[in-house]
Amino acid sequence: MKVGVVGAGSIGLLFAAYLSRRFNVTVYTRTEAQASEINKFGILLKNSGRTISFVTALPFSEWQGMEDLSIITVKQYQLDDIIGRILQMPAEPENLLFLQNGMGHLEKLQSLAVPNLFVGTIEHGALRENSYTVSHNGFGVTNIAVFRGDSNQLFRFISSAPEEFPFVFKERYEDMLLNKLIANAVINPLTAILKVENGDLIENPYYLKVLDSLFTEIAAVLELDNAQSDLERVINICRTTAENRSSMLKDLEANRLTEIDAILGYILAKANKQDRKVPLLESLYYIIKGKENGGREVVK
């Protein structure tokens, strides 16, 4: 089975390294320089040890979507370029798996005529150290569900994936993405602003009060049916990933754009439609936006 991995950030490198153990993998990079280095050195994966995976790397401009499954690992704010590329292809791909945070990308996917569209959420922690090295510092699973189309190719992929890098099929993509959105909306902005690891949010009683207040606003906007259970799940994620640094924190530290628009921005838009006041959520959103690129307007 041929698998394309579009994007060679931390998640793209992580997926390409593990999936190359069972599949014929091609990774598509933003620059020709990164593709050249991956082809020369392979992908160095650091977990409990070190392994090198040799894959084919090509610049994104050469992606035609001809693999049996293409996995889109770029950040949500980079999706417009991906979707524009797909719409310009002579023949649209058959099977695409999108792995983005938030839920704002669902509307974008409606524009695609791709027969089989899948979406997923990632529980792994990863850090890209250079153009071809990735550190796997948080083990979990990848949840995937059908957004539209036939699940046969998805099950074929899941059944062949490496056991040490598991994929879990979910019946309802809405529930899967909502659960991830709630966790991201609480944990990511708080850890990014406070510059702390996930576990600090529940170990520090004052941070925990802020976490609870933020969750209360989010639960009201999303009209959660079982808010207490959802809160306990968020707290448990903080506990089980206590030493993890959130992706939003790492993005700010690296002076990159964050996915705040796809996460808090999505919830804030819903709150505005409901004419609901969410002062804490709104404040955190603007603080993160202010930290991006020193508060200057950026072109996405």
UniProtKB/TrEMBL annotation:
User: Which molecular function term from Gene Ontology is one that the record holds?
Assistant: 2-dehydropantoate 2-reductase activity
- Does NADP show up as a keyword for this record? yes
| Tree of life domain | Bacteria
The reaction(s) annotated as catalysed by this protein in its Swiss-Prot or TrEMBL entry are: (R)-pantoate + NADP(+) = 2-dehydropantoate + NADPH + H(+)
Q: Where in the numbering of this chain does the Ketopantoate reductase N-terminal domain appear?
A: 3-147
Pfam families from the entry?
ApbA, ApbA_C
Similarity comment text for this entry: Belongs to the ketopantoate reductase family.
List the transmembrane segments. Answer: none
Q: Please tell me which top-level EC class this enzyme sits in.
A: oxidoreductase
Give the EC number: 1.1.1.169
Protein's name in the database? 2-dehydropantoate 2-reductase
Free-text function comment from the UniProt entry = Catalyzes the NADPH-dependent reduction of ketopantoate into pantoic acid.
The segment(s) forming the Ketopantoate reductase C-terminal domain are: 175-292
Mind naming one GO cellular-component term on file for this protein? cytoplasm
The GO biological-process annotations, alphabetized, read as: pantothenate biosynthetic process
What pathway is this protein said to act in by its record? Cofactor biosynthesis; (R)-pantothenate biosynthesis; (R)-pantoate from 3-methyl-2-oxobutanoate: step 2/2
Give the InterPro entries listed for this entry. 6-PGluconate_DH-like_C_sf, 6PGD_dom2, ApbA, Ketopantoate_reductase, KPA_reductase, KPR_N, NAD(P)-bd_dom_sf
Keywords, in A-Z order:
NADP, Oxidoreductase, Pantothenate biosynthesis
